[in-house]
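INFO  loader      accepted 1 record
INFO  loader      residues=262
INFO  predictor   begin
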Amino acid sequence: MKKRIIGVLSLLTILLVNFNVVTGEAAKETKPTKETTIYVVRHGKTWFNTQNQVQGFCDSLLTEEGEAQAKLVGEGLKNIKFTGAYSSDLGRQRKTAQLILAQNTNKVPQIIENKGFREKNFGGFEGQSNDAMNLAVAKALNLDYPEGSDELWDFLKEQLTEEELANKVAEVDPTKTAETYDQMKQRVEKAMPQVMKKVAKKGGNVLIVSSGGIIPILLESVAPGEYQGEKIANCSVTTLTYKDGKYTVKKIGDTSFVDQKE
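INFO  predictor   done
INFO  writer      dumping tokens
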């Protein structure tokens, strides 16, 4: 009888331990992750921007206006406690990130450089006038097009999607070194998980400084269909959140910080 009671107790103990292990694992699996807010900022205005030159993998310094823009964004975000900060290895992105964080009132993280956030590679058009590249694309389309610089760019944006325009640039690039849309998307799709792997568990706020051509592709990669052609101006802020594997877009191309009067 005594052995039987001991046996029953032993069985109950085993069942109880197993129950606690299973429920403990279930609790771990269902425990919600903390929300992460991501501030994606386009770099400040550069010399190439003012000269209407193609600027992708090639680089140029921020102008005085570009530095002032970055400082205004930093002032607007000065009370945000960042748990992570990223840019590519391009100087204009790095400098913008440095100026933003320099205004912050909290202890700021070290900037991590990730090549995935570089601007598009425009191949043989790098450093040339934007007009030369846009004209090459327009002629390849065999359509009547406006001759004015701004009008031509707007015309192309109306005729082609982001994907089509990127692929057409790659197609007409005489050196055949410009990136296709898929190549750009692939590197962005690698970069974002690398960021979230480091920051998602603790949540908080993350700064990413990138470029005007890549931010729309970044948005499309994490939240398909959300980007609808909004302008990504210098030092505009695009805000999204991440929780439990899902990205939610809050604002796209917000210029309220740089529009402030100093």
